[in-house]
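Run log // design_07
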């Protein structure tokens, strides 16, 4: 793939994000995280060279390997996958810019314990299972605000920045929209939260119209 192809893809995505955000408000700013989990280092480098800075991975070992091998580039790494408790130390060592998928109070407490020992800090989003799907991780919407407050209170080495959610897994736009509105409603009620991460390749425009200010785009951003 040549640079021109990456540019055409990325410019197309940026234009779509731009249209969606303006339809919400001229003042609504949206950040694009390029999800590189199916992409290699050459592809990440190609996107970096045309201006993309934020990348997301969903496996701790991939995050560590890619961020280490590309550490001469000023990239911003996001962890967006399910974190097994036995991988906590590896995630702390990878030192992500943002851990988007903190999905339970228990995990927060285990992370807090390790962060304290390592004298480290981590910025995180609380993942919410807004569509209440069996297959998804995240806290249930009814208890999300309470869990968020408990983490803030009990985990001084964790800085919560807001919430993350995956849209409902269906073709029904109304149900997807409801799941985004649920997440956004919780986000609005959290004091000091500034990141609402929702929207993937198939539903990011709807997510932005529902208030998302961070989209995680994989397949649509990496030409294959
Ligand atoms: C893979 C993944 C994405 C990107 O998915 P696409 O549909 O390829 O854009 C976004 N968020 C999470 C949590 C993912 O695992």
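design_07 sequence
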């Amino acid at each position: 793939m040549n640079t021109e192809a990456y540019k055409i893809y990325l410019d197309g995505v940026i234009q779509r994000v731009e249209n969606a955000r303006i339809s919400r408000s001229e003042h609504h700013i949206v950040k694009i995280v390029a999800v590189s989990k199916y992409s290699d280092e050459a592809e990440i480098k190609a996107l970096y060279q045309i201006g993309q800075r934020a990348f997301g991975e969903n496996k701790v070992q991939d995050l560590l390997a890619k961020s280490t091998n590309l550490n001469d580039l000023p990239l911003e790494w996001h962890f967006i996958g399910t974190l097994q408790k036995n991988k906590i130390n590896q995630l702390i060592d990878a030192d992500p810019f943002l851990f988007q998928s903190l999905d339970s109070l228990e995990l927060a407490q285990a992370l807090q314990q390790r962060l304290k020992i390592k004298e480290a800090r981590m910025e995180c989003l609380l993942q919410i299972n807004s569509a209440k799907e069996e297959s998804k991780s995240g806290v249930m919407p009814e208890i999300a605000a309470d869990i968020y407050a408990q983490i803030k209170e009990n985990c001084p080495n964790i800085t919560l920045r807001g919430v993350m959610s995956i849209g409902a897994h269906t073709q029904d736009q109304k149900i997807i929209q409801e799941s985004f509105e649920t997440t956004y409603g919780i986000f609005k009620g959290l004091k000091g939260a500034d990141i609402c991460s929702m929207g993937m390749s198939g539903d990011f425009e709807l997510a932005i119209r529902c208030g998302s200010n961070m989209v995680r785009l994989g397949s649509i951003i990496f030409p294959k």
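The radius of gyration is 17 Å.
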